[in-house]
C-alpha cells in the first residue's frame, strides 16, 4: 500500500476507528485468542466494550502461529476497513531458545554473537506471528539494587550503544523484505535505569548534561540503527513523567533526533500520570500523553474514553490524532501487513525451527562467552577423573533462564547437573540441594554435607531466584540469601576445594562468597543451554574470556559505583592526599570488588610495547595505538583488549576513564599479537556546560589493558586546526 493509499484509508476512517488504532490490548481481549480467561472484569474497568475490540490497532503478548493467525483472521473479518493488527511481545533474550540475559550477553563483548542471538529470536518469533519486539532495553544503569539491570548491557554508554546497534540489526535486518525479522522497539525512554534507591518506578532526577552524556547515547544508537519504535519509561525525569514529558518526547526524540516512528507507552503509563500527580483524571492524562507525542496507549483506556471528547472540545487537534494514526499505519505498511496480515506466521515452520540444534548451539556458544571467571585458585578447569559434589539450590534447577524468558520452558532447559553429566559418569557425580533459595532445613543441610564428602571437589551452585531481579525485582541487600551463605560456610569446613557458581540478575556483594570459595564463576542466567555452557567452562572445553560490564560493588553502601566516575576535588589516591579530609569511606574502600572490564582466563595475558603513531592529532588525523598482547600461559584463550582515554582537563569534569574501543583476540600458548586501535577527534567530544557537543584541545592519557583498572598508559595531545 502506498502512502497515498494510506492517506485515502485515513480519510475513510471514523473518529472511533482512528482512536482504536492507538489502543493496545492483551491477547485475552481478542476473540481468536486460545485462552480468553476472565476478561469482562478488566474490560469493564477499562470501560471498553466488546464492540470496540475490532477497531483495536495492536495486540500485546500474543505468540504462537496458531493463536496469532486465529486472532488476525477474526479481526480481518470484523474490522470494517480491513486494517490488520500489529502483534507486539517482549522477546528480550530469545523466543523459545533462550539466550543469556542481556547483562550476561554484554559480558561476552561479542557484537556478532549478540546480533546472532537477536536474529535467531526474531526468526523464531516471526514464525509465531510476532511483528514487533519490545527490545532492546538499553537503559544504562549503575544501580545493582534495581531488578532490571539484567535486561540491559551495563554501565558504559559506548558499550551500551554498540550492543544496542547489534541487537537492532539482529532483530530487524531487512525488515521490509524479510519476514523472518521483527521490528525493534527500543526502551525505556528515558533514563529508567537511574531510579533513586534502585527502587523500580522511582524518581529519576539528573542534569540534562548527565542525561545527554551518559544516559541518552544508547537510545540514539538504536534509532540510528533504524529501530522502528520507542517505548516510554515509567519514571519521572526532572519532575515530569516520561510518558507526559513533551520536552523529552517531542523535543528531543521527535524534533532534535527527527524520530517519526511509533511511540508506545509502557504498560499503563498513560493512566499512571494520575498517581504521579500530574493529571487529575484519565481525560487529562490522555491530553498530556497525546500532546507529548505518545501514539499507542498500552493496556489502559484513557485514549479510548477521552480523545474524541478532547478533540470535540478543541483541547486537542484532530491533526495530532491523524499523525499518530498515520505513523501506526505506516509501520503496518512497512511490515507488509496490508498485503499479508499473517506475515511470517507459520505453524509448521514454527515447530521446525524453534529450539533447533542450530539455535541451541548458538545459545550454548553465547552463554559460554558470557560466563565470567572471577576467581580461580588453581582448581579450574576440573578433570573428568574427579568426583564432583554438586551442591546448592541451582544444582538441578531449571530457573536459569532469567526474567523475561518469553517462551522458554523448564523441560527444554539444560540444568547444571545435566551439563556436568556430559563430562563425568554418574558414579562420579553426587548432588544435593543443601538449601532452597531463601530457606533451608537441617535435613537439607545434613544431606548436602554428607553428599559433599563423596567429592574431590565441590561445585556450589548458588544465587537468586529469577523473580529476585527483573521488573519490580529490587533488593536492598545485594548478597546471595543468608541460608546459601551459611551452606557455603559449612561446605568450606569440609576442607575440600570449592568452586562457587552464581546464577543471578545483578552485580552482587560477593565478599563472603569469595572468602569461602577457591574459585568463583558468575554465570548470570545463561539460558536454555546454561548447564552445557557452564560445564564447558568448568572442564575447560571453553577457556573463559567474559568480562564484567557492570562494576561489582564491595558493598551496597558504595552504590552507585561505576568505572567512569569523576576524580572529585579531594581524590583519596592523590600524591598529596590528606589522611582524613579526602573523598572516602571510613569503613570500606572506594574501589569496587571487581571493576568494569574485569574477567579471568585459565591462561594469562601480558601487555607490552604500547606505541602511538604520533603524540598529537587534529580533527583530520588518526591516532593509531598499537599494543602487543602475549599469551604467557599453557592454554589457548581469548582476551578482550580494552582501550580507554582520559581527558585531563575539560570545560566540565571528565571521567577518570572512558571506554573508546575494544577487540577480542585468540592466542595460542606463547603466541603474541599486535592490536591496533584508531582514535579520532570525534571520539574525544563531550557535552559542555551549555550542552554543546565538541572536543577541546589539550592533553589526554590513553590506556590499553585487560580491564578499566589496569593497563599500559601513554599520553597524546589534541590540537585542532579549526
Ligand atoms: C512491562 C515492562 C516493559 C514491557 C511491557 C509489556 O511493564 O516495563 O518493558 O515491554 O510491560 O510487557
Automatic annotation (TrEMBL):
SMART domains membership: Fn3_like (SM01217)
Domain Fibronectin type III-like: 639-708
EC number: 3.2.1.21
One protein family per Pfam: Fn3-like
Gene Ontology MF term list: hydrolase activity
Recorded superkingdom: Bacteria
Signal is among the record's keywords: yes
Keyword set, alphabetical order: Glycosidase, Hydrolase, Signal
Catalytic function, reaction form: Hydrolysis of terminal, non-reducing beta-D-glucosyl residues with release of beta-D-glucose
Similarity comment text for this entry: Belongs to the glycosyl hydrolase 3 family.
Protein name: beta-glucosidase
Provenance organism: Pontibacillus salicampi
Amino acid at each position: 500500500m502506498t502512502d497515498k493509499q494510506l492517506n485515502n484509508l485515513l480519510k475513510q476512517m471514523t473518529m472511533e476507528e482512528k482512536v482504536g488504532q492507538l489502543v493496545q490490548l492483551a491477547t485475552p481481549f481478542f476473540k481468536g485468542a486460545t485462552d480468553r480467561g476472565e476478561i469482562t472484569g478488566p474490560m469493564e474497568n477499562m470501560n471498553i466494550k466488546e464492540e470496540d475490540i475490532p477497531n483495536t490497532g495492536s495486540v500485546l503478548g500474543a505468540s504462537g502461529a496458531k493463536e496469532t493467525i486465529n486472532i488476525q483472521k477474526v479481526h480481518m473479518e470484523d474490522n470494517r476497513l480491513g486494517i490488520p493488527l500489529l502483534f507486539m511481545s517482549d522477546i528480550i533474550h530469545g523466543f523459545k531458545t533462550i539466550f543469556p540475559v542481556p547483562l550476561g550477553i554484554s559480558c561476552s563483548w561479542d557484537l556478532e554473537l549478540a546480533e546472532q542471538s537477536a536474529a535467531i529470536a526474531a526468526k523464531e518469533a516471526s514464525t509465531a506471528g510476532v511483528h514487533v519486539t519490545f527490545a532492546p532495553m538499553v537503559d544504562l544503569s549503575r544501580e545493582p539494587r534495581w531488578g532490571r539491570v539484567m535486561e540491559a548491557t551495563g554501565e558504559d554508554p559506548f558499550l551500551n550503544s554498540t550492543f544496542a546497534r547489534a541487537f537492532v540489526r539482529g532483530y530487524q535486518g531487512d525488515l521490509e523484505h524479510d519476514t523472518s525479522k521483527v521490528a525493534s522497539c527500543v526502551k525505556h525512554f528515558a533514563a529508567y535505569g537511574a531510579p533513586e534507591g534502585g527502587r523500580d518506578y522511582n524518581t529519576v532526577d539528573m542534569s540534562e548534561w548527565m542525561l545527554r552524556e551518559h544516559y541518552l547515547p544508547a537510545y540514539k544508537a538504536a534509532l540510528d540503527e533504524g529501530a522502528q519504535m520507542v517505548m516510554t519509561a515509567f519514571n519521572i525525569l526532572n519532575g515530569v513523567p516520561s510518558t507526559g514529558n513533551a520536552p523529552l518526547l517531542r523535543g528531543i526524540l521527535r524534533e532534535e533526533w527527527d524520530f517519526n516512528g511509533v511511540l508506545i507507552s509502557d504498560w499503563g503509563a498513560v493512566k499512571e500520570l494520575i498517581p504521579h500527580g500530574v493529571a487529575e483524571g484519565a481525560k487529562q492524562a490522555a491530553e498530556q500523553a497525546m500532546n507529548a507525542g505518545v501514539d499507542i496507549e498500552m493496556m489502559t483506556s484513557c485514549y479510548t474514553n477521552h480523545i474524541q471528547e478532547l478533540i470535540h472540545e478543541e483541547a486537542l487537534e484532530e491533526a495530532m490524532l491523524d499523525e499518530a494514526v498515520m505513523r501506526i499505519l505506516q509501520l503496518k505498511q512497512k511490515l507488509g501487513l496490508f498485503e499479508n496480515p499473517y506475515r511470517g506466521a507459520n505453524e509448521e515452520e514454527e515447530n521446525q525451527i524453534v529450539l533447533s540444534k542450530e539455535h541451541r548451539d548458538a545459545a550454548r556458544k553465547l552463554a559460554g562467552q558470557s560466563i565470567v571467571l572471577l576467581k580461580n585458585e588453581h582448581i579450574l578447569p576440573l578433570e573428568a577423573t574427579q568426583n564432583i559434589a554438586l551442591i546448592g539450590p541451582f544444582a538441578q534447577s531449571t530457573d536459569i533462564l532469567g526474567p523475561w524468558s518469553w517462551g522458554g520452558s523448564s523441560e527444554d532447559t539444560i540444568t547444571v547437573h545435566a551439563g556436568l553429566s556430559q563430562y563425568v559418569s554418574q558414579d562420579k557425580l553426587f548432588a544435593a540441594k543443601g538449601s532452597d533459595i531463601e530457606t533451608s532445613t537441617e535435613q537439607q543441610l545434613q544431606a548436602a554435607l554428607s553428599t559433599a564428602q563423596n567429592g574431590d571437589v565441590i561445585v556450589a551452585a548458588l544465587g537468586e531466584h529469577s523473580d529476585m531481579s527483573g521488573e519490580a525485582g529490587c533488593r536492598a541487600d545485594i548478597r546471595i540469601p543468608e541460608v546459601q551463605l551459611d551452606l557455603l560456610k559449612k561446605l568450606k569446613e569440609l576442607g575440600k576445594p570449592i568452586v562457587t557458581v552464581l546464577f543471578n540478575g545483578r552485580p552482587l556483594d560477593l565478599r563472603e562468597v569469595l572468602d569461602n570459595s577457591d574459585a568463583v564463576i558468575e554465570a548470570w542466567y545463561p539460558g536454555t543451554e546454561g548447564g552445557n555452557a557452564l560445564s564447558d567452562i568448568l572442564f575447560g572445553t571453553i577457556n573463559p574470556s567474559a568480562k564484567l560490564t557492570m562494576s561489582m560493588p564491595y558493598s551496597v553502601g558504595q552504590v552507585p559505583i561505576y568505572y567512569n566516575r569523576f576524580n572529585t576535588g579531594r581524590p583519596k589516591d592523590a600524591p598529596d592526599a590528606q589522611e582524613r579530609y579526602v573523598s572516602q569511606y571510613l569503613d570500606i574502600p572506594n574501589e569496587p570488588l571487581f571493576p568494569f572490564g574485569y574477567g579471568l582466563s585459565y591462561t594469562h595475558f601480558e601487555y607490552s610495547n604500547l606505541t602511538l603513531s604520533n603524540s598529537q592529532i587534529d580533527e583530520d588525523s588518526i591516532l593509531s595505538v598499537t599494543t602487543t598482547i602475549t599469551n604467557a600461559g599453557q592454554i589457548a584463550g581469548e582476551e578482550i583488549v580494552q582501550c580507554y582515554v582520559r581527558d585531563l582537563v575539560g570545560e566540565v569534569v571528565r571521567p577518570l576513564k572512558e571506554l573508546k574501543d575494544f577487540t577480542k583476540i585468540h592466542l595460542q600458548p606463547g603466541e603474541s599479537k599486535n592490536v591496533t586501535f584508531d582514535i579520532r577527534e570525534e571520539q574525544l567530544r563531550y557535552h559542555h556546560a551549555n550542552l554543546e557537543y565538541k572536543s577541546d584541545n589539550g592533553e589526554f592519557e590513553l590506556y590499553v589493558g585487560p580491564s578499566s583498572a589496569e593497563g599500559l598508559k601513554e599520553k597524546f595531545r589534541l590540537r585542532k586546526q579549526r
